[in-house]
Amino acid sequence: MPPADCSFCPESVLPGRIDESRIVHKEGKISIVPNYGSLATPGYVILVPERHVVNFKELPREEYGSYLGAVDYVDSIVGPDSIHFQHIGTGYGKTIDHAHEHVVPGIPFGDFRDKTRELLDSLSGETGLKYKYFEHKRDPSLSLQKMSIGIPSPDKGALYFYGDALQGIFLLEGEPNPKYSAILRKVSAEILGVPELADWKAVRNTEVLRRADDEIMRETARMFGKEIS
Ligand SMILES: [Zn+2]
């Protein structure tokens, strides 16, 4: 994808791109940005590398180090009771083909794991998609290959998340399907009691919801000591 057509690339020309006015902190070449579709949760941010890569692990070593620094920095602001998640493998949940990690405060690891499993089980009857689940002690620096033997290809769909002390990965096996689009946002929205806000594009296209969303994003920015418009 050419950078001009990727809303997460600095060269983007798209509306809704990540430009300097939305960034609340930079750790090297990793930006921290209040997320469109905040799920009514102050502190919900995404971590986005400037470089267009599909997965963080493709970053050069120094930039990957900045990513790990950004993880620690966000945790120091939003508190330890937050869930971090990534969709890995386009078509299995990811809607933007540029690496990004969601950080949502107020979601316990176990609730997130169990609700994700529930949703995957309910969909698998329709789609035939199967999954495996792996759980480890938290260590965001571990690659998926190192975390779990038996992953044939990192391009295979995976839902990767971590919380306070643990990290988990759902490895999806089957054809990519739009039903899995933004599935971890749906899980988060359900746990936070705002399922109607799961679809961020619908939120941004509805004036009253967009205004409320903008206010939450301003609140998030203030947690990071920034004012955004
Ligand atoms: Zn990009």
Strand content: 15-25%
Helix fraction, binned, reads: 25-40%
Level-2 CATH architecture:
2-Layer Sandwich
CATH homologous group name: HIT-like
Summing up helix and strand content along with how strands pair, one would put the structural category as alpha+beta
- The top-level CATH class is Alpha Beta
Can you characterise this structure?
The mean pLDDT is 89. An 8-stranded antiparallel β-sheet has the order 1-2-3-5-4-7-8-6, sandwiched between helices. A hairpin with a 3-residue loop joins strand 7 and strand 8. It has one domain (3-223): 2-Layer Sandwich (HIT family, subunit A). It is an alpha+beta fold and 229 residues long. Helices cover 31% and strands 20% of the residues. The two termini are 29 Å apart. The longest helix is centred in the middle third of the chain and has 19 residues, at 109-127. The chain has 6 helices and 8 strands. Bound molecules: zinc ion. Zinc ion is lined by residues 3, 6, 8-9, 52, 98.
How would you summarize this macromolecular structure in one to three sentences?
The chain has a single domain (3-223), classed as HIT family, subunit A (2-Layer Sandwich), CATH 3.30.428.10. Helix content is 31%, strand content 20%. It has helices spanning 61-78, 109-127, 144-147, 183-191, 200-204, 207-223, and strands at 25-27, 30-34, 45-49, 82-88, 101-105, 130-137, 158-162, 166-173.
What is the topological layout?
Layout: E1 25-27, E2 30-34, E3 45-49, H1 61-78, E4 82-88, E5 101-105, H2 109-127, E6 130-137, H3 144-147, E7 158-162, E8 166-173, H4 183-191, H5 200-204, H6 207-223
Helix pairs in contact: 2-4
Zinc ion (ZN) binds next to loops.
